């Protein structure tokens, strides 16, 4: 015998949908975190490239030019280039700090999404447990009804048989 429609079927479906939404939100949050971490790595690599360029220019600050001369304007121009790179390195450092904050926010969203998924799973399990309990109660009730019907049939046969013998 097929059980009747579960009275809280709508709630069960809502909880299942909420859990799926929570899973999707977690997946999106993890992807966003991965993107933010990739941006952080790119910015750190760019800063390291600037540092390497600065060090290279420092090593060659007093190298003579292609004519074999080393003039004051050449040294000043090279020094200004090094200062420019130092400014760019500072800018990159600020960008890295901002990106680290973005990564921290993304990590917080991942944790919030995980917590949301746990809550959605708990809510779904509660409704599922109620559904199982309701189904077990329904099956017990059906078994009791069948037992009662069986007893009535046996009693009716007994009465019919004993009634036939008395005649």
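Sequence proposed for the structure above (167 residues):
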């Amino acid at each position: 015998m097929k059980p009747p429609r579960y009275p809280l079927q709508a709630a069960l479906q809502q909880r299942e949908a909420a859990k799926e939404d929570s899973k999707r939100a977690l997946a999106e949050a993890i992807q966003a975190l991965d993107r933010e971490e990739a941006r952080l790595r790119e910015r750190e690599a760019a800063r390291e490239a600037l540092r390497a360029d600065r060090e290279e220019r420092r090593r060659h600050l007093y190298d003579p030019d292609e004519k074999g001369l080393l003039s004051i304007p050449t040294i000043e121009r090279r020094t200004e280039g090094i200062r420019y790179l130092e400014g760019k390195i500072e800018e990159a450092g600020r960008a890295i700090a901002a990106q680290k904050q973005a990564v921290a926010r993304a990590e917080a969203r991942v944790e919030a999404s995980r917590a949301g998924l746990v809550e959605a799973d708990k809510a779904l399990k509660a409704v599922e447990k109620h559904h199982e309990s309701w189904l077990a109660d329904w099956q017990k009730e059906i078994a009791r009804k069948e037992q009662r019907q069986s007893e009535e049939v046996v009693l009716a046969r007994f009465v019919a048989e004993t009634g036939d013998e008395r005649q």
